[in-house]
Specification:
The radius of gyration is 17 Å and the shape is elongated. The chain contains two helices and no strands. The longest helix is centred in the C-terminal third of the chain and has 38 residues, at 29-66. The chain has helices at 8-24, 29-66. It has 67 residues and is an all-alpha fold. The chain starts with 7 loop residues before the first helix and ends with a helix.
């Protein structure tokens, strides 16, 4: 899965799917490792997306308040 091409909402949905899968406890250790790594990468992507969005909003609001 190409994380960079996902939307924030799609990434969150995938994290939820992974959590549900992990909670079921039906996967082998190799699959668990891969799922945890994928979830970790998705969470990093979401945090970065949130930071970027916050910066863009602050810039936009800052421009409005200065003019």
């Amino acid at each position: 899965m190409e994380i960079q091409n996902l939307s924030y909402d799609s990434a969150i949905k995938r994290i939820q799917e992974i959590v549900e899968t992990l909670e079921k406890g039906e996967k082998g250790i190799d699959e668990l490792t891969a799922l945890v790594k994928e979830a970790s990468d998705l969470m990093k992507f979401c945090r970065k997306k949130l930071r970027t969005t916050e910066e863009e909003v602050n810039l936009a609001l800052g421009d409005d308040f200065e003019n």
